[in-house]
Specification:
Length: 193
Amino acid sequence: YDGEKMALCDFNLSVKAGESVALVGPSGAGKTTLLRTIAGLWSYAEGEVICPTNSQLFLSQKPYVPQGNLMSALAYPNNADNISHTQAVEILNKVQLGHLTEQLEKEQDWTRILSLGEQQRLAFARLILHKPAVAFLDEATASMDEGLEFTMYQLLKQELPKTTLISVGHRSTLKALHQQQLTLQDKGQWQLT
């Protein structure tokens, strides 16, 4: 609720482990607000959300990349000691960041070095590394071309078959990458397909 309009009303959605839902609709319909509400990041909503809060990861359009070496950025929010060099190389190759494997220990301002598309792929690498029960993707592929977006979602399905994916995006290609589609419309209306 934003003080003036209801984003969604009379709504009930169940998503099983390993299923995926794309939240789509026009700009301003409340997609990101709903995503944040489900993730427990938005407290200005009424109703009940049951979601495993101890095993989730939220990927935004502009991922957070901490200062330090690339190994730490990959392991974030965990400590880099929890990941081996071999595992880091394998994951970076899977998300098509193999050109960075020789720089894992290099201290850089990675936010300035990596393009936004590379930062988004780094966030996908984190997702694969952490294996959360639920992943929230808020335009997490907006800086990738459609082919790379398809590849990243296929990779998630392969690597994380039990992870529930809930995505927000504006591209029509996102719909085909999910099992269900929740279309938010004006005035709190919605349609699930």
